[in-house]
């Protein structure tokens, strides 16, 4: 019997985990879920409906009835959507409502690749391979700024850095499933790595961990 291959990528915003997860998913022909998009979608709906983070029952209902076909909305990739996602992700009831969707996705028959904040610790603690991808805040902010400035020429790097630091603090200090590295995860610091080098490191980690199991 072939066990499912579950690969978990965790880490803070703009660490590169999404890019790495996408490449690894293609390598192994596995479905991939960017779990940040789930929270961005809930945050987007909260903003669109004029709700506050105190409207917990309404936000839980949005999470429970979320339509996955809307994840390709380009507005979910923007700077504001990232902040909205961080806000709703700090609400335990919202996280619980979205937990089952992620667990089911991870445990498909062949397996899956997921990237997020609590994949290796909460969603798939039984994952075959766990990577914790990080980089210095200044480096992550610069990467995110390069992405966002294309559509927002007046955006200041300092503002993006402030957003990154705020999200790091919120993600790490929330009461429900805080951002933390699983005990059996492999740390991958991409601060001084180009994209190709980071990909090769990730590939090596997956190969080594699969072989050891």
TrEMBL record:
SUPFAM superfamilies: P-loop containing nucleoside triphosphate hydrolases (SSF52540). Its EC number is 2.7.4.25. InterPro entries: Cytidylate_kin, Cytidylate_kinase_dom, P-loop_NTPase. The keyword DNA damage does not apply. Keywords: ATP-binding, Cytoplasm, Kinase, Nucleotide-binding, Transferase. ATP binds at residues 11-19. It catalyses: dCMP + ATP = dCDP + ADP; CMP + ATP = CDP + ADP. It is found in: Cytoplasm. GO terms for molecular function: kinase activity. Residues 7-206 form the Cytidylate kinase domain. The keyword Phosphoprotein does not apply. Its main location: cytoplasm. It is an enzyme of class 2 (transferase). Gene3D superfamilies: P-loop containing nucleotide triphosphate hydrolases. It comes from the Bacteria. Belongs to the cytidylate kinase family. Type 1 subfamily. HAMAP family: Cytidyl_kinase_type1. This is Cytidylate kinase. It comes from Asticcacaulis currens. The lineage of its organism: Bacteria, Pseudomonadati, Pseudomonadota, Alphaproteobacteria, Caulobacterales. The gene is cmk.
């Amino acid at each position: 019997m072939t066990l499912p291959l579950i690969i978990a990528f965790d880490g803070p915003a703009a660490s590169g985990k999404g890019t790495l997860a996408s490449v690894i998913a293609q390598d192994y022909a596995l479905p991939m879920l960017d779990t940040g998009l789930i929270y961005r979608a809930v945050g987007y709906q909260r903003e669109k409906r004029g709700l506050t983070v105190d409207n917990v029952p309404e936000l839980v209902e949005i999470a429970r009835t979320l339509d996955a076909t809307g994840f390709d909305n380009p507005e979910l990739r923007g700077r504001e959507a990232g902040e909205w996602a961080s806000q709703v992700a700090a609400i335990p009831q919202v996280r619980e409502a979205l937990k089952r969707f992620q667990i089911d996705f991870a445990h498909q028959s062949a397996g899956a690749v997921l990237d997020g904040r609590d994949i290796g610790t909460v969603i798939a603690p039984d994952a075959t391979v766990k990577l914790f991808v990080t980089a210095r805040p200044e480096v992550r902010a610069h990467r995110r700024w390069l992405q966002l400035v294309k559509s927002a020429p007046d955006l200041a790097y300092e503002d993006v850095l402030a957003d990154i630091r705020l999200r790091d603090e919120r993600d790490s200090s929330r009461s429900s499933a805080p951002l933390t590295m699983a005990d059996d995860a492999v740390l991958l610091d991409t601060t001084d790595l180009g994209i190709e080098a980071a990909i090769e490191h990730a590939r090596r980690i997956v190969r080594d961990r699969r072989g050891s199991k």
